[in-house]
Amino acid sequence: MGVLAIDPGTRKCGFAYTDRARILTSALEPFRHEADEGRLFRHIESLLAERDVRLFLVGLPLDPGGATTEQSELVSGFVARLGERFAGFEIRTYNEHGTTKEAESRLRDLGHDGRGIRLRKDSWAALVLLEDWLAAGEPA
User: Fold this and answer.
1) Pairing label, strands 2-7, 53-60
2) What is each CA distance from 56 to 30, 61, 107, 108, 140, in whole angstroms?
3) Residue ranges of the chain with pLDDT lower than 70?
């Protein structure tokens, strides 16, 4: 099954995808939903229509020690609603600590600056999350 990684935000979400064979990983276009979860879910439906996905990997913002934060509580609520909307899909969360900084670093290395980084960093953070999870052996 393919995996859709999601870096959730209150106004914008980043997305990345890997195929069923785990050979290709790619950052997808970020999506600005402006806190309209219905709009966000419709966008996710459009991503699913174009890809073979059965698992969502959602970035969970934990503090450096691995403890939950106020933001991680918001993400947990999002995960619950995602599960209700997409009942046939498996959902896993994975610690996203450090993914945004890594994404920004990679984008700088590719020659992006200011605006280019801001436009892409959410989906690149989802890509880093996905690659970290794959490298860790796809933990449950």
Assistant:
1) parallel
2) 16, 16, 24, 28, 12
3) none
Total number of domains constituting the chain? 1
Q: Where residue 12 sits, what CATH number does that domain have?
A: 3.30.420.140
In a domain, 14, yes or no: yes
**pLDDT one-digit tens code per residue, 68-99:** 999 999 999 999 999 999 999 999 999 999 99
Tell me the whole-structure pTM to 2 decimals.
Answer: 0.95
